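Incident log, structure service

09:12 report received: a user says their structure output differs between two submissions of the same chain.
09:20 pulled the input from the user's history:
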Amino acid sequence: MSLTTIAIGGFSSDTGKTNLLCELLRALPGWEAIKVTRGHYRSCGKDPHACCVSQLLSEEPLICSGRAKTDVPGKDTGRYWEAGAANVHWVVVTDKGVEPGVRQALSRVEAGGVLVEGTSFTQFVKVDFLILAARASGGKIKPSARRALARADAIYLFDEGTDCVHAREQFAAWREASPERECLRAIPVYTRIDFPQLVARVRAAHHDAAAGKIN
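09:34 re-ran on a clean worker, output below:
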């Protein structure tokens, strides 16, 4: 079976990428999800016993799959299950393990489509569609998201309680003042009222990818 891979990243933390991934899972029944957690083995400055993943890190990627290992209330992976994921895979890696870890997780996917939360892996793994979540105010773009801008297919503005028209205007004003404005202008922008159109584009990418991999 061919596999369509959709990446969901964010300009920075707290931009709604997990919320977006869950909404997409609800709109795409039968799809699976992958969560990528990068840790810094005893070099993040935190007590290894206090860090949520330090004790899980090793030279080899750790991939946890299935409800028994990943359905944890309050965690992103638990939210994926609540949103209707057919299966969830949690990848815990160091920076060097991102590529092999994601590839191993993808090899476990049995559905025709998978949503992967993260952007750093897109340097090494080809995806069929890449969405970047952002606040209407824009803000600082983290390095991995900046590198992904040239490959991005859509930007999704996540601003609960904000008028979508105002959110677009605010983002456009920020974009024109950004050093990356030329690249940003080329990426279609969506808000929550445009969500059906975004889903349609993801489905089209799934159709095109499946047709290309079959032919």
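09:41 both user submissions now match this output. Likely a transient worker issue. Closing.
09:42 reviewer note: The chain has one domain: 4-214. The longest strand covers residues 4-10.
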